[in-house]
Design brief:
alpha+beta, Porin, 15 strands, 14-stranded antiparallel beta barrel
């Protein structure tokens, strides 16, 4: 049964709509374009999210491809991974629990009251990635690292608002992506430079608001919320990412690194039909970051600060584009730290704890490698908040992320 057929059940009983939508989302079929205020970027790493979503000044794994490709140089061994990531909002967890308690005699009003002001959010990511450092000391005196990642990311959001005249917000997005990059040190390793090419095939229906009356009266919800087709039609775009990192020799004891990244160089421009407006294009995004990486025996410490979207040209950041103030600096500021115990390689520890601030909201997470000496099974968890409304401080959404990575 298609999503829109399932949603048509709302005409008979709204409860069955939301139960069906939640079940469909767990299957990872569709996704949503984020609301206006959310600085949504595809393929956000769980390690980074636990550290306040930092990553420009430090990256030791496949996430460097999406934060700063120059960070690939930090990988000191061949990595192959098959991560499975699942993300849900705090509201989603509570709603599932409350729906399970509803009796068969519950009314539509009971369900609407349960969902009012809540936001159901799901995201999942499945991909394969390979990072390969190549030793070229004898010929060039440096190392070159290649990286590749490809897979699918889906996201889904649903919200019920306005108790006077009930409104439902709904939309979804599906991304099929591939990212290829390389990085190398120059000037005796003081500078690290990297570049990558990213291809995204996207099915995107923007967040759409409709009244409950309109939904109950229509027989074709595709006309209300839109459709990507069955099977989904994916629109293609390609862009380039560049970055550099500077190892600060004056603070070598602290292993300080300053970096900058340029994401979506040339713009992310989708090939659409003449009558289509989605998927929407995205502009160049510039960011800068600083990290400290001291080590003490079996303990590795990381501290990082990022300032993203320096030009305020991010496609979702319309509020800060017209209201340039100190509040918008906090919206783009990311701070994080990690304490890793018994490091396995440059990017993983037997156990690590993380904390940070994302847009002024506290984040935390952990990593566990039960096989101790290698990455065959890597388990990571993070909790973070992000703003989803149109203004600063509007609609912060708390989310929980779990990733299980099989690899070596």
């Amino acid at each position: 049964m298609s999503l829109f057929v399932t949603m048509s059940c709302l005409r008979y009983h709204i409860r069955y709509l939301f139960v069906s939508v939640i079940l469909l989302c767990l299957g990872g079929v569709f996704t949503l374009q984020a609301q206006t205020g959310e600085l949504r970027r595809p393929v956000q790493g769980i390690r980074n999210l636990g550290m306040g979503n930092t990553g420009i000044g430090l990256s030791f794994d496949e996430n460097a491809l999406f934060y700063n490709p120059a960070g690939l140089v930090g990988v000191d061994k061949i990595l192959v991974g098959f991560p499975f990531l699942f993300e849900v909002s705090e509201d989603s967890v509570s709603i599932v629990n409350e729906i399970s308690k509803l009796s068969g005699s519950s009314t539509t009003a009971d369900v609407v009251e349960l969902l009012m002001g809540k936001r159901v959010h799901f995201r999942n990511l499945i991909d394969i990635n390979v990072i390969m450092p190549l030793g070229l000391e004898q010929q060039f005196g440096d190392l070159m690292t290649f990286g590749a990642a490809g897979g699918f990311e889906t996201q889904f959001d649903l919200a019920v608002r306005n108790p006077v005249s009930i409104e439902i917000e709904f939309g979804f997005r599906l991304d099929r992506f591939s990212n290829f990059g390389f990085a190398m040190p120059i000037a005796r390793g003081r500078w690290l430079v990297g570049a990558g090419v990213e291809t995204i095939e996207r099915c995107d229906i923007p967040l759409t608001k409709a009244t409950i009356g309109k939904i109950l009266s229509t027989t074709n919800l595709e006309e209300t919320f839109g459709s990507c087709g069955n099977p989904p039609v994916l629109r293609r775009a390609q862009t380039f990412n560049f970055g550099f990192q500077r190892r600060l020799e004056t603070a070598s004891a602290m292993k300080m690194i300053w970096g900058m990244s340029a994401y979506n160089v040339g713009g992310l421009k989708f090939k659409r039909s003449d009558n289509e407006t989605n998927p929407s294009d995205q502009n160049l995004e510039l960011g800068t970051g600083l990290s400290w990486q001291p080590s003490w025996g079996p303990v590795r410490m990381l501290y990082a600060v990022d300032l993203r979207d320096l030009t305020l040209k991010h496609a979702d950041d319309t509020y800060c584009q017209s209201n340039k103030g100190t509040d918008c600096i906090w919206k783009r500021l990311h701070i994080g730290t990690e304490f890793g115990f018994f490091p396995i390689d440059s990017g993983a520890s037997t156990f690590a704890v993380r904390a940070g601030f994302n847009q002024g909201y506290f984040t935390y997470g952990f990593e566990f490698n039960p096989f101790i000496f290698f990455r065959f099974l890597n388990i990571q968890y993070a909790v973070y908040k992000t703003e989803t409304g149109e203004k600063i401080g509007d609609r912060p959404d708390k989310r929980r992320v779990l990733q299980i990575n099989l690899g070596f």
